[in-house]
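Quick bug: Carboxymuconolactone decarboxylase-like domain-containing protein output formatted oddly.
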Amino acid sequence: MRIPYAPTTPPETSSAETKATYNRISERRKPRPLIPLDLALLHNPSIADGWNTLLGAIRSKTSLSPALMEMAVSRIAILNGAVWEWDAHAPLALKGGLARAALDVVRRADVVPSGGRERSEEEVEKLAEDEWAVLCLTDQMTRSVVVDDAVFESCKALLGETGVMEMTATVATYNCVSRFLVALNVGEKNGLNMEMPKET
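Here's what came back:
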């Protein structure tokens, strides 16, 4: 990382508020220890606490399927060159139910949604309609910020109003995460290849 990591436990001289922040983040991570992302953020416990609250809601308080959520996060990692994010979330996409062939398309595809081209035969064969719609939304939000009406309406029709808001929030949040990870080289993985997770 480009700056030292914060300590894994709050220093003895820490305020009660800082200790409480460490505890909240540790509770969300259980049974795992704090991860490099946490230790980068804990340079400022207030930012780390807000980040933890937002990510906790995105990760566990939405109606989104784990497969679609993790597919979107994995695609953001590909588009932004966030190897650490890919390594963390691509296995979760598979665990959440995304087909391995679909994840490989997410990793390799050059998606140009609505108005750019028709879906390739591989994309039609390996991605379900909702997966394609979320992939297009993710690409447009990540690459150009502006989302075509056709792409948004397709996602809304498949996910519902609440679901499309949750997916939009997820994509926005994980773009923030990936940019933080890459800029600070959290986990020291910048520049490494993004490989498909090993089969279990």
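Actually, after a second look the formatting is fine. Residues 149-184 form the longest helix (36 residues). Closing.
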